[in-house]
Amino acid sequence: MENSGGIQASLSGRYALALFELARDGKSLDSVGDSLGALKAALTQALDFKALINNPLIGRKAATQAVAAVASSMGIDQLTAKFLGVLAQNRRLSQLPAVIRAYETLLSNHKGEARAEVTSAHALTKTQITALQKSLRARVGRDVAVDAKVDPAILGGLVVKIGSQMIDSSIRTRLNTLAMAMKG
């Protein structure tokens, strides 16, 4: 797999690559991607789920049962549910957020699209995300998958990261730049 050398170097990357290859062979790349997206959202919204994956005191059996229940209640596809069980058995549930990021990168590379991490002060609407994707596509020359995050601390504007490039048009950065210029 091209462009996966850096991903394979990390533990979470090796898990993501294994999941990606199984999903590719089973022709379920998108359904696994959707399930991981739902888990990613659950990690930001459900504090008890986040506590579950980060608690080293929960035993293997209890963790395996808990993630099976979570997967069942969320309607997670079978491959991803089994994968969560493997993470629980290997005591690697804390790696889940990094595995999800690595899988998203592998999926984007497979589809020939770039991946952009976009931070805004307020949640972006679907229309705004579509317009941003169109603008970024014109800039990078290929389709762009947007991973939107909200950080009220930037006050306004956007911070966009595509690979090693970063475009920071946040109000916080502009104010800091102005403050530095005024100090002389």
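(the above was protein one; protein two follows)
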Amino acid sequence: MIQIDDKIVSTEILTTRFCCDLPRCKGICCVEGNAGAPLEADEVDTLEAEYETYKPYMKPEGIEAVERQGFMVIDEDGDYTTPLIGEAECAYSFEQDGITFCAIERAYNAGKTTFIKPISCHLYPIRLIAFGNGSVGLNYHRWNVCHDALALGREKGLPMYRMLKVPLIRRFGEEFFDALCSAAQYLNEQK
């Protein structure tokens, strides 16, 4: 672990090679699981306020799930999460050419909204943990559905934090990302 200001970062984020491989995994992380994607409190308001911008891109089953369950649900730990279709697939998903994508991100790419997608989805496989003292933990969430991403990351030599540069900057800022780069360089020099 390394600490940068009030963030505690698992060194695996700096050393693990990882690169999403959608043609192989088919976006399965949006389909499988036992709970929806974690949401930050302000994201719930955004999901509700901008629902009409991404609703046209959603599956009918996803629209039904949101309109029945709400823009978010509270999981067994008391955290806000995205609603699900059935017991696994994110309600905000859609499928194209056999690959599952995010309808919110599709609306963003079409210029319909300024909200890219929930930060937990954008940062995946990094998961954030809020500590009682106000600090935030960044951990690597291992999931067997990402084996293709590990293989492609090794092939490309791409560290996870580099693949996730845009969402890391989106959530924590440029200075934090620059500090991550410095920490990664230091770790490499110690080998």
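Reviewer note on protein two: Residues 169 and 177 are 6 Å apart (CA to CA).
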